[in-house]
Amino acid sequence: MEPGFVKTEINASGLAVITFSHPAHNALPSALLSGLADQINDAGTRKQTRLILLQSAGEKTFCAGASFDELQAIPDETAGKVFFSGFGRVINAIRSSPKLVIGRVQGKAVGGGVGLIAACDYCLATENAAIRLSEIDLGIGPFVIAPAIERKAGISALTVLSLNPTRFFDAHWAAQHGLLHGIQPDITALDAAIGELATQLMDKSQSALTALKRTLWRGTDDWDELLDRQAAISGRLIVGPEARSRLTNT
Length: 250
What we know:
The protein is of the alpha/beta class.
């Protein structure tokens, strides 16, 4: 299978478009997680960047979450923690970026993909968007992404998502619970709405937007350590007998 890619393009107006792609429904193996974190960090430090847009390739699935093949190949608890820490690095890259990060969601998101949506500062989607946390079905849990989801949607919505691992919740449910901030009928309308929002935001004071972002993320200064601890929980569980059996039989 092709390894996928992460790429960044910064246009003349200062919009840094970060696109990730993987042939397995835009799943995120370690290499792509590392690339996402690095490119978000890099885009945020570039003088010409005024706004970051995070998107995936294609017209269907936004993100299938963790790479299933890589989950099956994790040899031990230490390697498991390292893998799940990749999601923590991406979330913390978005959190610590001085630039606002806008999410573009064209379709379904599972597991870690929901974490990406939750971490974005503002997120727009199509009617085809839907979210699902499948981790409990795999014998683990959404531990690394849970703080980001709880911050946006609250503990009740996190509970509902976590305890219904086979159910997709539609875009309107996600919007009602604060994970999405606008829904468009199709991709054409979505891109038009994103273009309009980006034009407005890039014309605003960058100092004011950076200060606003710090305010919006108030109370998360411990997330480097928190998400690392959460990754350790997933790393331990993924190599346990229950998770091994579920991964084998899925």
